Please model this.
Amino acid sequence: QVQLVESGGGLVQPGGSLRLSCATSGFTFSTSPMNWHRQAPGKERELVAVISSAGGITKYADSVKGRFTISRDNAKNTMYLQMNSLKAEDTAVYYCYRGPNYWGQGTQVTVSS
Model:
């Protein structure tokens, strides 16, 4: 079965960095476009970043452009989200996603001084 497991979240100060990982199994990762989403309590889930199957095409929400980088290592069946210059507004649960409707459990990112 498809499994997506996020890790790497935690508490970080404004301006700091975190690297999230999404370890996958149960499907052919190398042919699957992947997404990162996030959701704060009381707010709608939003798309953060997308990446093509080979990693050559990436797209970002305007709120994270220039600060976040999505990447993948198809040999390891793993996707990453490098988050730099973090802001309090980035505080949310971050989810790994694979179509048509597969989600990880999420990892909490809290940006606070």
Q: What stands out?
A: The mean pLDDT is 98. Residues 1 and 68 are 30 Å apart (CA to CA).
